[in-house]
Prior knowledge:
By secondary structure, the protein is of the alpha/beta class. 34% of the residues lie in helices and 22% in strands. It is built from twelve helices and 16 strands.
Amino acid sequence: MDIYVVASGDTIDSIAANFGVSADSIIYGNQLVYPYALAVGQALLITYPEEFSPAKPSIQAGGYAYTYISPWVLEQTLPFLTELFIFSYGFTPEGNLLLPPLDDYWMIQAALSQDVRPILTLTPFDASGQFNNALITSVVQNENYRQNLIGQVLNTLQSKNFAGADVDFEFIQRQDRDAFTAFVNELAAALRPYGYTTTVALAPKTSANQPGLLYEGKDYAALGAAADSVLLMTYEWGYKYGPNMAVAPLNAVRRVVDYAVTEIPPEKIHLGIPNYGYDWPLPFEQGTTAAVTIGNVEAIRIAVENNAVIQFDETAMSPYFRYTLNGTEHEVWFEDVRSISAKFNLIKEYGLSGADYWQIMRWWRANWLLLNDRF
């Protein structure tokens, strides 16, 4: 596959002629909409041959999905995945497992039919749907509650035909760090005899003693030893309430991987990849400005509709652009096939074993075609 960056004066037909492919293949692979206008600076995936069947990648490829995902989107995505992380199961302060808001049986069955391992994602969500570290404290610091939760997770894996569990606990308090590690150890030990795997999501640390609520409760070395694999959550540098910047700048992602491989074997590490971008109104004001979450295909359409020129930050290895709508200036950062290609190269460079996407609710064909090609 090739990646082509649109220049002024280009059309779908002229690009297709230059590469010796059909215009339809470019339209299909890049999800272009009639009348197929392009943005200067837009990165297009050019596929050879034009017709091929998706195949499982040579690395582990996981995607997180809420239970309200479009069945069509899930059907399109599953052929490219090896694992489906169903988001999510919660729990009470006493360790009683809470089901997702919508039934997930159909997702489990769809995954199994496509030779994809369905994974139960466990999160400490409160009634408002927010991470609640008081729930973490209550369970990990109490032997009875801890064993209750582990037992209910195991029973659910067995009754629903899951293939494993993913522990996605965030904002763990520093004083709960070792108890959380013990919980992951005990969970993995309980699941392993039955053939179930245990994965743990890790905040993107760059040093062992990194301060901050996101980082202090995660012991990379101990969790890497306890779990069968880990996910580096290498995204959200640019976030909804934060300053306008790349969501997953490659230079920052690389620093996390640099540290992670000193604590965890690379063959246990999956790189987190964002399947979204943000649109910030400007000027940014901390505590006031809120970005709108958008899909990567949607970002291109916004650029086209507003005659924006897409730039590419060679340090962050991320695309961005500005446009003005109704008198308000906006800045958009998102992912394209160039930024994704750079992340795939990082996986190969460090010998990591997987790529896990947050999240697969939006269909992004070019990404999956590129994954199919690179791995």
